[in-house]
Design a protein that fits this description.
Layout: E1 3-10, E2 18-24, H1 29-40, E3 48-51, E4 56-58, E5 72-73, E6 85-90, E7 96-105, E8 111-116, H2 126-137, H3 145-152, H4 161-172, H5 177-185, E9 190-191, H6 200-209, H7 227-238, E10 242-245, E11 248-251, H8 258-267, H9 274-289, H10 294-304, E12 310-311, E13 314-315, H11 318-334, E14 338-339, E15 347-348, H12 357-369
Parallel strand pairs: 4-5
Antiparallel strand pairs: 1-2, 1-7, 2-8, 3-4, 3-6, 6-7, 9-11, 10-11, 12-13, 14-15
Length: about 375
């Protein structure tokens, strides 16, 4: 994978905060945003912008106004569009401005090469508020010392290059093994049944690798016996990683590139939708807190849901969340986001921290805050 090396410096902050990271050279701006969040240690709780002398790029949120009015949608833009130097602004209230410089080609894999300085806590008032916070924390006699120390908690941790490197790599993403498994089976073409389903030979081959996808202790016969396989089959065709021609299923050209595979898989999770919100929170909770029964998992996810979600004109309740998790479970299992080896509980799967960037970030934050 071709990478680009960036130096990122948080402006007007002491002690200084800087990172040197290698990111995919073809990174889109939404991908670059996720990588910068991980590299610095932010929690992706606020809006952001990329600013160059020629243009400002940002998120387009349905129904929300943007500023400046000529802001461009970042979705179709890439790192290469920003030039050799640009600003990354996070949280337009606190106004954390990062000066980013392109140093040249990076190494063979993405990651964090170097860095120093702890990430400031979110919502502390920007560089000025952060300086005041540090003064209060350094003075045990200050009347606000104990309150602010409690508020900060363990959020002012020293920079850890190894942990940051791992976090950045997870945000770049890895191809789930179940996805690779089905793509490999399709490499020489799979002739589907007259009903458009995977043949028995493929179903049983997948079952050998994922026996827990079928609750009955016997060989599966049809694709529908393995709901995660059916969900995976449909998803890979939907995002353009598998195509059907003359009744034969084969991988597309995109399926030959790991970064393209990850991008296609992520495109199946539309932002700002209830299904995606449920999936990300579910994976984050399981990755951070360990296996949970469905009822307890639904309770935790419901507590984390933002306000405003409704079903049938009524606020989403815990039962709705439980049902939504169950409805998404086949897709999550098919993508190795959850593990159903023990059908009594939901557990994080092998891809829980390396497929969906927001789930990855939530898991890292919640793990570190325990």
């Amino acid at each position: 994978m071709k990478t680009t090396r960036l130096r990122v410096v948080l402006r007007d902050v002491e002690p200084a905060v800087a990172r040197v990271i290698d990111v995919p050279a073809s990174a889109t701006l939404p991908e670059l945003h996720d990588l910068l969040q991980a590299a610095i240690g932010w929690t992706d709780s606020h809006l952001h912008q990329f600013v160059t002398p020629q243009a400002t790029y940002g998120m387009e949120i349905p129904g929300a106004d943007v500023w400046p009015e000529d802001q461009r949608d970042e979705t179709g833009a890439r790192l290469a569009d920003l030039g050799a130097k640009f600003e990354y602004v996070y949280d337009c209230g606190d106004d954390w401005t990062h000066d980013v410089e392109v140093l040249g080609p990076g190494g063979s894999v993405p990651g964090c090469i170097d860095g120093h300085g702890a990430c400031p806590p979110e919502d502390c008032g920007g560089p000025g508020g952060y300086a005041e916070l540090l003064d209060v924390l350094a003075d045990p006699a200050h009347p606000e010392h104990e309150r602010m120390r409690t508020w900060v908690g363990n959020r002012l941790r020293p920079f850890d290059r190894v942990a940051t490197d791992q976090w950045v790599r997870r945000v770049v993403g890895e191809v789930p093994e179940s996805v690779r498994l089905l793509l490999d089976f399709a490499a020489n073409g799979i002739k589907l049944t007259p009903g458009g389903r995977l043949p028995r030979t493929v179903v049983r081959s997948v079952q050998q690798h994922r026996p827990h996808w079928y609750l009955l202790d016997r060989p599966a016969s049809i694709e529908d016996d393995l709901p995660p396989l059916g969900a995976l089959h449909g998803l890979l065709r939907g995002v353009g990683l598998l195509r059907l021609r003359h009744g034969v299923l084969t991988p597309t050209r995109a399926a030959s590139d790991d970064l393209a595979i990850v991008r296609r898989l992520r495109s199946a999770f539309d932002p700002y939708t209830f299904a995606t919100e449920i999936t990300e929170l579910t994976i984050g909770v399981l990755a951070a807190h360990g296996p949970l029964p469905l009822g307890e998992l639904a309770t935790q996810v419901h507590q984390l849901l933002g306000r405003g979600w409704q079903r049938g004109g009524q606020p989403i309740n815990e039962g709705d969340v439980r049902m939504a998790i169950a409805e998404q479970s086949s897709v999550m299992k098919g993508l190795d986001l959850i593990d159903s080896a023990d059908w009594h509980v939901f557990a994080a799967g092998a891809a829980a921290r390396s497929l969906l960037p927001r789930a990855t970030m939530l898991a890292e934050i919640w793990t570190n805050n325990e």
